[in-house]
Amino acid sequence: xQFLARNLxxxxxxxxxxxxxxxxxxxxxDIGQPTPASHPHLMAEGEVTPGIxxxxxxxxxxxxxELLPENSLAIISSAPVKMMTxxxxxxxxxxxxxxxxxxxxxxxxxxxxxDERGLCMFMPESTPKDIAWEGEVAGVDAASEVFxxxxxxxISKLPEILSDMIRHSSKVFHNVQxxxxxxxxxxxxxxxxxxxxxxxxxxxTHELRLIKSPAELKLMRESASIACQGLxxxxxxxxxxxxxxxxxxxxxxxxxxxxxxRMAFNPVVGGGSNASVIHYSRNDQRIKDGDLVLMDMGCELxxxxxxxxxxxxxxxxxxxxxxxxxxxxxxxxxECIKQCKPGTTIRQLNTYSTELLCDGLMKMGILKSxxxxxxxxxxxxxxxxxxxxxxxxxxxxxxxxxxGFVITIEPGVYIPSSFDCPERFQGIGIRIEDDVLITxxxxxxxxxxxxxxxxxxxxxxxxHCHDNSARTSPVSLCKVKGLHxxxxxxxLF
Length: 493
Ligand code: GLY
Ligand code: MN
What we know:
It comes from Arabidopsis thaliana (Mouse-ear cress). GO terms for molecular function: aminopeptidase activity; manganese ion binding; metalloaminopeptidase activity; peptidase activity. One of its GO terms (cellular component) is mitochondrion. This is Intermediate cleaving peptidase 55, mitochondrial. Its cofactor is Mn(2+). There is one protein chain. With 493 residues, the protein is α+β, with helices and mostly antiparallel strands. The chain has two domains: 47-209, Creatinase/prolidase N-terminal domain (Creatine Amidinohydrolase, Chain A, domain 1, 3-Layer(aba) Sandwich), CATH 3.40.350; 211-480, Creatinase/methionine aminopeptidase superfamily (Creatine Amidinohydrolase), CATH 3.90.230. Helix content is 31%, strand content 16%. The protein has 14 helices and 23 strands. It has helices at residues 54-67, 96-102, 128-134, 140-145, 158-167, 181-184, 187-194, 202-210, 214-238, 244-257, 320-338, 346-363, 373-376, 454-462; strands at 10-11, 17-18, 47-49, 52-53, 72-77, 83-85, 88-89, 110-114, 118-123, 151-154, 171-174, 198-200, 262-263, 268-271, 293-297, 299-301, 304-305, 308-312, 406-409, 412-414, 429-431, 434-438, 443-445. A six-stranded mixed β-sheet has the order 10-9-8-5-11-12, sandwiched between helices. Strand 22 and strand 23 form a beta hairpin. Helix 9 runs antiparallel to helix 10. It starts with 9 loop residues before the first strand and ends in a 31-residue tail after the last helix.
């Protein structure tokens, strides 16, 4: 989609004309997010977001309309902007349902979908002051021309138009997580709610998002591959720099230079007993010689996330106690992955992993009773994965897996320092997590390139040439023997 040069400038006043285009080339309109014209290195013609074409977005909307009862509306708001302080926002992340259905990566809009009207988008109206502070954003023109909305209005028209749509609908589905007062405060919405006509949309959208299309799988594979490369580089680096904060910074750097827009979540980098805190996030401690470090990380690539965990000894050698416990988690990881196939459920995988882990922990004398198992592992063996890290959370774990589902397999054990067990096991936390695509015949491990065998990890850590200057400048990693930079802006390594 090419925008004309006439759109390049925006009148600030009668006498003053200021161009605020972040990507001004005199021929390309800035709509506040990449387009094939503004970012040809990222996007091919016909794509609305990198890797996903307009036909796919239209197909998703058609499927959602088919799932809606007759004469129903679906209202999906973009995610709210969260402020760090005063006028300074946190990095914006779009609501996954809104992104899935519209392709719009920006805040301030509300999308409404119905059989009668198709996609109707209410878009933000920027003032010159907004543009001066935040740059150009997608408005009504972009809604029609880029996102291919059937109808597009400025957001100020929402109360009048949406009220009328709600009044004429028998049911209103909406995205509760990102619900906006722009519509929940409308009298007609509140009347519908009081009559029991307002329903949750996520049960429908999460259903659609469970099965990934070929284009989505390409992005999921790429996201997983970036996570594997980033974690491997960080693992190698850990021998010279056993520090949670440095490793957290490095894994983010390694993912972002490979094209990821952000991490899928704040990485968990727990050294020693910090690894027994499941979602440890402080990442502020040195890792003691001989301790393990657990790193749970993932990145987001054009809306699709990865989720990967490895646990290793930065010193390069597992102790015999660490090896014994690690082997139990590794065997459980591998056995559960082997069970992944159409028809199996996450619940069944969880039951299987609980049996394996309980048996092992009892045999090692760590558990005195199977009843205590949940004190050492309160987590599920896995979850669905996609646009969100705990994706399609409205779908339960009793759903038979189908080709195109992506799930995680993440057995772990988290032994608090105070747990009543032989002292040598106290304060150890181990998790090994992979991303698994369900195929017609079984599975494909998307994170299979990241080593997890003890001998492979030890070999890698002990045959790696370190560059000490990397402590102050991660870029100098490219000077490490055997690594080469290339100048492709999407892929630096
Ligand atoms: N890796 C984060 C989680 O699964 O909760
Ligand atoms: Mn996970």
